């Protein structure tokens, strides 16, 4: 069971609750813990051949279903060109795509925010007013998720 350290944030509470509800037993095997502590750190080169040699953690392989949440200031405009190529139609790419002054993201930006509104200006509007970690935990648990990874993009 994860325990809070000091003042607990709503996000930590969400993570702790999901971890505890997943009923993943803690590892109490002294041999396994000793091996894990003594395992040498792995070094990988910055290329796919090297990185692809890393082993998949057993817990991840066993989990089968999890949820990744990408969240950041790009959630304010929440726009992605629905006609873009697969892999490029994500709101996370808003800043990158608005650099193309002939593209649909810039057209959307001009229409809704104007030419003088910088991407960084979205930060003041990113308030997460509907963030309810208990509701999220209930939803994820009822969906059968075994893990949740929350990433905040800051570009």
What does this structure look like?
Helix 1 packs parallel to helix 7. The chain is 35% helix and 9% strand. It has 155 residues and is an alpha+beta fold. The protein is built from 7 helices and 2 strands; from the N terminus they run ααααβαααβ. The protein starts with 9 loop residues before the first helix and ends with a strand. It is extended, with a radius of gyration of 20 Å. It has one domain: Alpha-Beta Barrel (TIM Barrel). The protein has a two-stranded parallel sheet.
Q: Any idea what the CATH architecture is?
A: Alpha-Beta Barrel
For the biggest sheet, the summary is: 2 strands, parallel
Question: How helix-rich are the residues, as a percent range?
Answer: 25-40%
Taken as a percent bin, the fraction of beta residues is 5-15%
Structurally, the number of domains stands at 1
Which secondary-structure class do the elements indicate? alpha+beta
Secondary structure elements and pairings:
Blueprint: H1 10-21, H2 30-38, H3 48-51, H4 58-63, E1 66-72, H5 94-97, H6 104-112, H7 133-143, E2 147-153
Parallel strand pairs: 1-2
Helix pairs in contact: 1-7
